[in-house]
Specification:
It is built from four helices and three strands, in the order αβαααββ. By secondary structure, it is α+β, with helices and mostly antiparallel strands.
Amino acid sequence: MRHQKNTVKLGRKEGHRKSMLANLACSLIEHSRIKTTLAKAKAVKPIAEKMVTLGKKKTLHARRTAIAVLRQADIVKILFDDVAPRAADRKGGYTRIIKLGQRKSDASEMCFIEWVDAPVLVETALPGPKAAKPAKK
């Protein structure tokens, strides 16, 4: 029985899943916004938020724990120096997921995952010049 087994497996074995989620969290820290599938975004959200909580502690133990999870020391430096101080006054809910619709190739639900304190970027096409319409009489 799977009672209280909350791990989202994502069709991967444990080592591959942990590496993938660590890489997604590192990409989120580095780029502030990543485009991924909804399932992966929901899986990486708790990891990213725990890393910000560690970053807010600013202890050597927290830094070493973050390096153990993320596996990239330069990303942990960005986390502790840039991302965590921006979230110092927030008690939780550091990330947001913005749904984008389905991917054409396999109809996977796509989304952006980004930091809440980052400005909202909306990708839209710039309106071109409109041709003058002939007046009706």
